[in-house]
Structure formats: structure tokens, C-alpha cells
Amino acid sequence: MQTTQQSQPHRVDGKRFELEALPWLDDVYRFALSMTRDEADADDIVQETFLRAYRSWHTFEPGSECRKWLFTICRNVFLRVRERERKRVDCGGDDAQLETLAAVRVSVAAIGDGAEDLFSRLDLAPALERAIGELPEVFRSAVVLVDVEGMAYNEAASILGVPVGTIRSRLFRGRRLLQEALIEYARDAGLVVTSGVPCTGVS
Amino acid sequence: MDCLEVVRQLWDYLDSELTDEAMARIHRHLAQCRQCYPQFDFERTFLDAVAATRREHPAPNLIRRKVLAKLRKAGLDL
Questions:
Q1: Which of A150, A144, A163 is nearest to A74 (CA)?
Q2: Cβ-based neighbours of A102, under 8 Å, separated by 6 or more
């Protein structure tokens, strides 16, 4: 025979939920939008995220970071939604140091092309936003959580459910792809002059 | 600490993800090395630019209302 306790839903402290979870609605929406790149999809994901958060509010540990908890739920909702049309994405190797070195080659080349102040140009901002949006999702999530939302590697790893080493390699690959895209854009736009293939000094 | 070692850890350094000791060693190297400093500066400016893309995307009021309606329906007393 079932006990009453088993069949009863958890009582939710509505006031606490309102005070601790709901203020993060804008942040969750921004995160959802960064993953979906589509407002209607983000809308659905945000609603589902808060519904799930409400239903599992009893699992939230008081004093822990609510935003991170909500981002984790949001990410899981997104993955479930995406599962239907899941594409296989090449996540590349897991060697973060190789990615760092590859990025250094990009930056050495850019500096050689006289583009050392490229990223401080305000007119590059729309191209940067577009390039972030065009990153494959696995890299975009890492870049958004660490570089845009300011999370530590271990926090991003926890939200995305992957080891810290994987976050590093995805993050570094994402950064390199962004830099390559921006430098290409800058060259096409005549913002930097290509001086041929520069010697990078790093192989 | 040589230049290769520094550039390998440049992003970890910029993200403050290294030990205090490693952070200090790279910091000292960058203060003295003319080759590495421009790399550091380039990557730092890049990361600043990425961080600056963070826009306050306030959730549209419609979404806010939908979320609240859903929560009320689920039993939340607001």
C-alpha cells in the first residue's frame, strides 16, 4: 500500500522560488537564445525550464548558485528538444594545448598583417556576434558560458555535463574558429591587408 | 619558463585557471618578453570583445507572462 507521503507532490515554497529563481529569467532567456538562435524556440525552452525548476525545486540546495542550477536545467531541456533533429558534429580532438598553439598561429599572422588592434574596433562587434551565432553548438555553448557569462571552466563543465578538459578544448577551439572567422571578415572588408603567409615561429 | 610554455598556457592564464604560482611565473615572463606580450595583448583584447557581446536580452514580456501563467497552473501562488 502506498503511503500518503509517496503520492503527495513536494510542497514548493513559492515565495522562495519567486525570490531566488524568477529573477534569473532574463539570464536563462539569454542562455536559451544563445543555444537556439531562434526566439520562438528560446521561448519554449525558457517556459519548460522554469516549469521543471518549479517541479524540482525541492532538489535545489539552498545557498548554492541558482543561476547555474537553472542553466543546467535549461541546457538539458535544449538537448532534449534538439534530440529529434540531432546532427553529428565533429567536436575535434581533446587537446586544448594544440588549440592554444593553433590560435597563437592565428594571432601571430594577424599581428603580422598589422591587425593587432583588430578586436578593439567597435565596427567588428556585429561580425563577432554573427560569428558566435554561427559556431557549431558544442563550441558556442562553451564560449557563451565562459567568455560571455563569465563562468569558470568547472562551472561550465558542470552545466554542460562534460569533463573540464572537454570544456577547455571546446572553448579553445571555439575561440580559434571565432578569430579565424573575424580575420577573414576583416580581410574581406579591407580592414586588414594580407601580406602573404607570415612566418609564425610556432609549428 | 620559455615562450612556448607561456603561449601554451596563455588562455588558461587569461582565464585565471592556473595555480597562483603558474600565474605569477607567466605574469613575470610577460612583463619582460617582447615576443609574448603582443600575443597576450591580442588575446586579451579578443576576449574583451567577446565578453562585450553580452547584451542584456531581457526576456520579452510575453515570455515572462507565459512562464508565470505556466507556474500558476502548476500550483505556484504568486
A1: A144
A2: A176
pLDDT digits (tens, 9 = 90+) for A154-165: 999 999 999 999
Question: What number of other Cβ atoms are within 10 A of residue A141's Cβ?
Answer: 25
User: Can you give the pLDDT at residue A75?
Assistant: 93
Which of B10, B38, B55 lies closest to A116 in CB terms?
B38
Alpha helices in A37-163 (DSSP H): 39-55, 66-83, 96-112, 125-134, 137-143, 153-160
Q: Which residues of B touch A165 (CB under 8 A)?
A: none
Q: Identify the contact set of chain B against chain A, taking CB-CB distances under 8 A.
A: 4, 7-12, 15, 17, 35, 38-39, 41-43, 45-60, 62-64, 66-67, 70-71, 74-78
Contact A103 B56 (CB under 8 A): no
Distance from CA of A88 to the nearest CA of B (A): 26
**B48·A119 Cβ contact <8 A:** yes
User: B7 to chain A, minimum CA–CA distance in Å?
Assistant: 7
pLDDT in tens, chain B (78 residues): 789 899 889 999 999 999 999 999 999 999 999 989 988 999 999 999 999 888 767 788 888 899 999 999 888 877
pLDDT at A127: 86
Instruction: Looking at the complex, report in whole angstroms how far the Cα of residue B26 sits from the nearest Cα belonging to chain A.
Output: 15
> Which listed CATH number (1.10.1740.10, 3.40.50.720, 3.40.50.300, 3.10.580.10) goes with A10-83?
1.10.1740.10
